């Protein structure tokens, strides 16, 4: 593998000269790596939609899609092809530029944030120091797509993440994961009790509930409730414009699950420090944890009735924000005392 | 020309273009979106100066929050463009004067720096293990604690002002208080009355 | 440091380009036969009688201000949280004063009823 990379780097120097060869090589390499992340992500989105329909189907004592391919496995592909051949309708009253820009602005942050997500120890595209800050900044651009319902949730997610920062003292996502491998329980081999979800349990719950609201998912989907307002603004988006919106929203769902995994569930770390479990690659554990959180997303949708708009506002501003501020002050004060468990 | 310089020129050109479009775009929503682009490219230029935290905070605060407010205001005001254009020539002298003054001030600062100390050197790459955020944090909450607290007071003034300017109580709305709804007892709502049966005439 | 941000910049560009490519694919493959009825705004069987871009309620403006406030607060909290062992009790107290001042504003907004939604 290393030889192959070295040979390819050599070719680019030979073709473009010593001055332009290395930059061109870095460019091509980065582009390939980005596609290696995004294209499987698109696949995950496609099969997440199938999983959603199947799981909610079974929860409601139905079978879900089962006609296209064996057990309905080709359904997402059929959907994608269908959307590709659907006419793009831009309503006469709409501003063409803004109408087309909106889905692109939803998709871009949901993809670009993956640049700093670590998939395993040392396996990260851009190992930047301020990784968490970057993710916060780039996802905050998502508010332009759909507004308001995600507002309070955006702030509460911020406060919950500050608590994680307090205990890990780094904005680098890999460092945050590695920080969770230390602690009293980890020393006894019980890794999963040392992850942040236990000492910061209220923040983990607040973060995850806010993440559900942030991604406009049931039960907080007032902006695009399917059964009430026929999915809101999605009505006027057809064909690929709709598909891009849809991709962005589901990629966002996977993204917030991945972040929750990294912040609170120990990222790629195995739950118990045993030789057998350590032998399994970290990527597997990461995917397993993300999958569990995604299942919760679908589970919520099948279980809870939709919140009303004023109820969401009350929950965000009057319950979560005061709760997170108080908890933040408490954790910081706790760290000032000698009984600091994160030393 | 290094790659870094090339990236700088691309972003500088984008920033100048976006800034121009902010003041020339006819549609106010477009103007606001070009301002978003301007902030984004400015953040990229700060990043080239190794101001990692500030660059990302610029995106987080301005693109993620302040510009949303701008867009809201633009939509809320229901701007009548023809009425706005009427005043163009009347306000032009004043606007031009202020513009020239700003250019003059900027020139004063930039030119003075340029001739005093030569071109400012590009900050060196700090190397691995350096955290811009931590360096900033160590200074901000110790040496610069008064400006930091002053920022809090400013924000407080902003909240109070916003409430004083925009808060209007509407009288005609109905409001549910779920706590009261849940706390309701039967005797608050239902009254059992014993009445003698009426005789049929 | 900057070479770490190059992939980030490229990822942002690729994110935008991918969105554009997907939309272009739709534009090329799909039929394109507009007619006035098809392009009219979606309503339940009647002509649209008002501009969809209605004016926002002024209350959203207040919530937006509050949102900015908390966003700024978070921007200040991030560097504070990562250096808390270095800045000691003084740094801790500085942030507590900062938070206290802002909580005053939050309580004021709450008591004034700016967070009520009917």
Question: Which short descriptors sum up this protein?
Answer:
heterotrimer, A: 343 residues, mainly alpha, B: 201 residues, 0% strand
Brief rundown of the structure:
The complex is a heterotrimer of chains A (343), B (201) and C (118). Chain A is mainly α and 343 residues long. Chain A has helices spanning 2-59, 75-84, 96-112, 131-140, 151-168, 173-179, 184-187, 201-214, 226-229, 239-264, 275-278, 282-303, 309-336.
* Percent in strands of chain A: under 5%
Tally of DSSP β-strands of chain A: 0
Protein chains sharing the most extensive interface? A-C, 79 and 61 residues
Helix content of chain B: over 70%
**Percent of residues in β-strands of chain B:** under 5%
Structural class of chain B: mainly alpha
- For the termini of chain B, the CA-CA separation is 111 Å
- Helix and strand string of chain A, N-terminal first? HHHHHHHHHHHHH
Q: Tell me about the biggest sheet of chain A?
A: none
Describe the structure.
- The complex is a heterotrimer of chains A (343), B (201) and C (118).
- By secondary structure, chain A is an all-alpha fold.
- Chain A contains 13 helices and no strands.
- In chain B, helix 1 packs antiparallel against helix 2 and helix 2 runs antiparallel to helix 3.
- With 201 residues, chain B is an all-alpha fold.
- Chain B starts with a helix and ends in a 12-residue tail after the last helix.
- The mean pLDDT of chain B is 81.
- In chain C, 73% of the residues lie in helices and 0% in strands.
- Chain C is flat and about 65 Å long.
- Chains A and C meet through helix 1, helix 3, helix 4, helix 5 and helix 10 of A and helix 1, helix 2 and helix 3 of C.
């Amino acid at each position: 593998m290393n030889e192959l990379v070295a040979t390819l780097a050599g070719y680019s120097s030979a073709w473009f000269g010593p001055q332009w060869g290395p930059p061109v090589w870095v460019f091509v390499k980065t582009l390939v790596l980005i596609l290696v992340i995004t294209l499987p992500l698109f696949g995950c989105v496609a099969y997440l939609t199938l999983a959603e329909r199947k799981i909610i189907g079974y929860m409601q004592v139905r079978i879900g899609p089962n006609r296209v391919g064996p057990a309905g496995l080709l359904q997402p592909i059929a959907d994608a092809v269908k959307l590709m051949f659907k006419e793009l309708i831009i309503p006469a009253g709409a501003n063409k530029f803004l109408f087309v820009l909106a889905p692109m602005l939803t998709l871009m942050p949901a993809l670009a944030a993956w640049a700093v997500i670590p998939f395993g120890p040392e396996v990260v595209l851009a190992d930047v120091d301020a990784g968490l800050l970057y993710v916060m900044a780039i996802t905050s651009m998502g508010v332009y797509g759909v507004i308001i319902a995600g507002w309070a949730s955006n702030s509460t997610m911020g406060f919950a993440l500050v608590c994680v920062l307090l205990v890990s003292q780094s904005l680098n996502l890999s460092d945050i994961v590695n920080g969770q491998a230390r602690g009293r329980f980890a020393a006894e081999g019980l890794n999963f009790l040392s992850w942040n979800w236990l000492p910061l349990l209220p923040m983990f719950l607040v973060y995850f509930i806010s993440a559900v609201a942030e991604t406009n998912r049931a039960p907080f989907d007032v902006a695009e409730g399917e059964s009430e307002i026929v999915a809101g603004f999605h009505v006027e988006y057809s064909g690929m414009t709709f598909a891009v919106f849809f991709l962005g929203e589901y990629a966002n769902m996977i993204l917030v699950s991945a972040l929750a995994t990294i912040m609170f569930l120990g990222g790629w770390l195995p739950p118990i420090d045993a030789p057998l479990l350590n032998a399994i690659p970290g990527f597997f554990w990461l995917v397993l944890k993300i999958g569990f959180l995604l299942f919760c997303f679908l589970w919520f949708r099948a279980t809870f009735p939709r919140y009303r708009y004023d109820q969401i506002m009350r929950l965000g501003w009057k319950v979560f924000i005061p709760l997170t501020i108080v908890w933040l002050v408490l954790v910081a004060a706790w760290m000032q005392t000698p009984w600091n468990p994160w030393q | 020309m290094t790659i870094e310089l090339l990236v700088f020129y691309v972003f500088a050109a984008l920033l100048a273009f976006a800034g121009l479009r902010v003041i020339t775009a006819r549609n106010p929503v477009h103007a606001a979106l070009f301002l978003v682009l301007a902030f984004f490219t400015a953040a990229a230029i700060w990043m080239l100066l190794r101001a990692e935290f500030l660059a990302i905070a610029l995106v987080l605060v301005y693109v993620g929050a302040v510009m949303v407010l701008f867009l809201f205001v633009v939509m809320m005001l229901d701007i009548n463009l023809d009425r706005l254009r009427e005043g163009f020539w009347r306000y032009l002298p004043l606007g031009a004067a202020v513009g020239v003054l700003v250019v003059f001030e900027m020139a004063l600062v930039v030119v003075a720096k340029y001739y005093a100390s030569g071109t400012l050197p590009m900050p060196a790459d700090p190397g691995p293990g350096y955290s811009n955020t931590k360096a900033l944090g160590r200074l901000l909450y110790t040496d610069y604690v008064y400006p930091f607290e002053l920022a809090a007071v400013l924000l407080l003034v902003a909240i109070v002002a916003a409430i004083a300017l925009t808060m209007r109580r509407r009288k005609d709305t109905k409001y549910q208080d779920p706590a009261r709804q849940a706390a309701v007892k039967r005797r608050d709502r239902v009254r059992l009355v014993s009445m003698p049966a009426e005789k049929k005439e | 440091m900057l070479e770490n941000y190059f992939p980030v910049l490229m990822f942002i560009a690729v994110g935008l380009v991918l969105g554009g490519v997907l939309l272009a694919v739709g534009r090329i493959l799909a039929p394109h036969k507009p007619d006035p009825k098809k392009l009219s705004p979606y309503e339940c069987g009647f002509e649209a009688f008002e501009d969809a871009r209605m004016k926002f309620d002024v209350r959203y403006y207040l919530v937006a201000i509050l949102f900015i406030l908390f966003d700024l607060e978070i921007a200040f909290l991030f560097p504070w949280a990562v250096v808390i062992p270095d800045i000691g009790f003084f740094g801790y107290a500085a942030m507590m004063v900062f938070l206290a001042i802002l909580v005053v504003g939050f309580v004021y907004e709450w008591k004034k009823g700016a967070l009520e939604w009917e």
